[in-house]
Amino acid sequence: MNITQEFDTICALSTPFGNGGVGVIRISGDKSFPIICEISDKSDYSAGKICYAKISDNKTLIDEVIILPFKAPHSYTGEDVIEIQCHGGINVIKDILDLVVRHGARPAERGEFTKRAFLNKKMDLSQAEAVNDLIHSKTSEFALQSAKNLSGSLARKIKQIRQDIFDVSSRIVAGIDFPEDVKEPEYSYLIENFEKSISDIDKILAGAKSSDILRQGVKVAIAGRPNVGKSSLFNILLNMDRAIVTDIAGTTRDVINETIDMGIPVTLVDTAGIREDENINRVEKIGIEYSKQSVNDADLIIFMYDASQGFTKDDEEIYNLIKNKKHLIAANKIDLAPADFESKFKDTIKLSTKTQAGIDELRQKIKTSVLDAPVEDMDFVTNQRQQACLVKCRQSLDNALIAAKDHVLQDMIYIDLITGEVVTDEILDNIFSHFCIGK
Fold it and tell me: Where are the alpha helices (DSSP H) in 89-220?
């Protein structure tokens, strides 16, 4: 986008395109109020006053709408904004958008409304990215965490860290530039402050892995020999009868995937029972190969065996395939097992897909196995761009800390403390290109 376009008046549909009860069209820029006056039956709109209006094209009525007017800087973008709530028919929306464009607006690019909010200092970059996370969140927990970032929790923490570094830098510069009037800060003071800033960054980065998982999700494969209850468990975790369940060995011939919300986005994979038998047919053999590939690709494996039959030689062969990957062990059919049943594995989850005993424990262990910390205990969620910036900052502080401990000249230490907030057009375009049109 060139610089002249950044001052154009833009428009877009902010609700999903298609038939619906209501469609919301957003206009932002200096021409927003003149445009709505030209296409509607009203010649004046007061900021903050919701009103009813009729939109027409050459005296042909298009729709009866609700208008929400916002005057700069008191709007989402920081510019004059008009929101048109019209009926959600495809043709109605298209006709109004065409009319708005003919009267001086242009179609917005991806994320351009939020980009303008950032450029007009209505939000910082972490808050802008939180908008996209909130829209695309796959779980309610990630939506709540994204809302915290949108409210500025991460921005405030980063600002505080930056201010701490700036304060130390100022004292060093004062001591260098005005040695007769200001003493250089003690090295103990530098060490204490560098260690504090490093600790603050580490606290944010501690949730980096969990942040990535909340955003992207994990793949969990259920593996084991035939008839141990894999498909039954798959159906229970999904809370629906998705996989066929019978007592016939080899019922599942293909890999079945479904995504569920377990506090984190989980793609659950039901695999064909793995077994070596010269009597199995070609279709089941293909299914078993798919199962092995799915197990290999999974982030976490639930290895199941039949507690009523004990841990067999066939179970051991399958376990040897997955033991070096992250896994949970589930002994199913515990309701049919001997009363003194004990698993050979210390952390075995004893469950029954018939009575659903142990299912809640399994759900919890899936979450704790893939997350660094419980979602509810996370102070911040970060994306990979933010994590890279924090890692780079920490490396500079590490260098400054080592130099301070070695009593290196403070003007050399200062080099590692120079901070900046440079955001290039390339970075902005990359970030906002992932937004939807209308946001």
Answer: 90-102, 112-119, 125-136, 140-150, 153-177, 187-205, 208-216
